[in-house]
Amino acid sequence: MDGEDDGRGPDDGGTNADGPTGAETPRETYDRIAEHFASTREYPWPEVSSFLDDHAADSARGLDLGCGNGRHAEAMAEDVAAVVGFDASRGLLDQAAERAAERGFDVELVRGDAAELPFRDDAFDIAVYVATLHHLRTREDRVRSLSELARVLRPEGRAVVSAWSTEHDRFEETEGFDTTVDWTLPGGERVPRFYHIYAPDEFESDLGESDLRVREAFVSSGNCYAVVSPA
Q1: pLDDT over threshold 50, residue 4
Q2: Is the pLDDT of residue 33 over 50?
Q3: What pLDDT is stored for residue 7 in this prediction?
Q4: How far apart are CA 66 and CA 81, in angstroms?
Q5: Which Pfam families does this entry report, sorted A to Z (predicted)?
Q6: What is the pLDDT of residue 166?
Q7: Percentage of residues in the chain with pLDDT exceeding 90?
Q8: Mean pLDDT, rounded, for 17-41
Q9: Domain assignment present for 12
């Protein structure tokens, strides 16, 4: 799952400043909007492409955690021998399967909960976890998910993690907060999606509470990013 346009910031849907009332679970939300959402997700983010350029070469197994329509799994498959795409939404996984079939790249697709990954320890050399962490409703689940990422990475493995940030010029808040951001379907139906918008220091704090080690942290296009490894 990931945040319209390139998904690197709030889209043209409304932000609910009064809080995250009315939003379904991420799985239910993205199952409802999967086809239209996937049609807006064509290219990998430049930050992800740069990360893969730096770290993907010679990797045996890669994980796209919150893979959506598979655009980052496709980019990963250029250099990684075996790629797994993981998402809570069956609808998005169906879109990823269609993309893989049309474009001729190999990816194993798995559905589940990002806070409880169904993979063995040390299973992956490299991982991409972008625009998904912020959909988990509680801090406990977000930190648990980050620790699960650490568990499934090999000791020398690397991952890039991102989340929407208060640094985006759309937001006036300086502290992290919960909200909903609407996705507008063709015909005008608005579907609220839950987000936790991170302040940069909060993002680094949650990473620090997890079993990950931050190698690099930065803000780009209104998102918090970190390159991480197991602690």
Answers
A1: no
A2: yes
A3: 57
A4: 19
A5: Methyltransf_11
A6: 97
A7: 88
A8: 83
A9: no
User: What residues form DSSP beta bridges with 64?
Assistant: 85, 128
The strand pairing partners of 230, in sequence order, are: 212
Total domain count, the chain: 1
Given a contact cutoff of 8 angstroms between Cβ atoms, the answer to whether 122 and 154 are in contact is yes
Backbone conformation region of residue 150, classed left if phi is above 0, alpha if psi is from -120 to 50, else beta = alpha
Indicate whether 222 belongs to any domain.
yes
Can you give the pTM of this predicted structure?
Answer: 0.92
Residue 15 in contact with residue 168, Cβ under 8 Å? Answer: no
* Type and span of the H or E element at 140: helix 139-152
Question: Is 115 contained in some domain?
Answer: yes
CATH classification of the domain holding 81: 3.40.50.150
14 domain-assigned: no
What's the average model confidence in pLDDT over 51-58?
96
Q: Say how far apart CA 6 and CA 113 lie, in whole Å.
A: 24
Domain of residue 169 covers 26-230
Distance between CA atoms of 155 and 139, rounded to whole angstroms?
Answer: 25
Residue 180 has a pLDDT of 95
pLDDT at 184: 97
Please give the C-alpha separations between residue 83 and each of 23, 35, 72, 216, in angstroms, as whole numbers: 31, 22, 10, 24
